[in-house]
Amino acid sequence: MITLVIISILAAMAMPLSKNLTKRAKEIELKQNLQVLRAAIDDFHRDWNRDGDNLLGEMCKRNKLTCKEVTSTTGYPKKLDILLNVELSGEVEKSTRHYLRKIPSDPMTQKGEWGFRCYTDAPDAETWCQDDVYDIYTTSNETALDGTKYHDW
């Protein structure tokens, strides 16, 4: 009888611990996915930067037609899918530039849908102007283990 009581107490203590472990693993995956996506956006912006009609980035200068097709006037990608495959048009041979192999899914919502912010949006904007992809965030409204909201990461 005592053995059964001890086992049930240990099992009751282990349940919340395993729940936190699963949540922590999802949080780590979310942080990694956001870092990968934001690094790809930053790399794209460095290569394709422009200020209106002034082409500043090296890839923009060499591929003027492609630059205006894939970037906004601020040099950020018009859509997230552009980071997967950018056709270069200004060079002798046509080639493709990849910033991401695939768009990672959001571990919190279990979907491939992300929230976007434009360059002109406020840092906490909930709506997307659809001009460019300046920042990305999860659409989950859940609270993290540290007390912050996931969509604020």
What can be said about this structure in brief?
By secondary structure, the chain is an alpha+beta fold. It has three helices and six strands; from the N terminus they run H-E-E-H-H-E-E-E-E.
Number of helices: 3
* Fraction of residues in helix: 25-40%
- Shape, per Cα inertia axes: elongated
Task: Name the average pLDDT.
Answer: 88
Write down how many β-strands occur, each being a DSSP E stretch of 2 or more residues.
6
Give the end-to-end Cα distance, rounded to a whole number of Å.
Answer: 49 Å
Report the radius of gyration as a whole number of Å.
21 Å
Can you walk through the features of this model?
The structure is a single chain. This protein is of the alpha+beta class. The chain has one domain. It is 39% helix and 10% strand. It is built from three helices and six strands. It has helices spanning 2-48, 58-62, 64-70, and strands at 50-51, 54-55, 86-88, 95-97, 115-117, 135-137. It has a two-stranded antiparallel ribbon. A two-stranded antiparallel ribbon has the order 3-4. The longest helix is centred in the N-terminal third of the chain and has 47 residues, at 2-48. The mean pLDDT is 88.
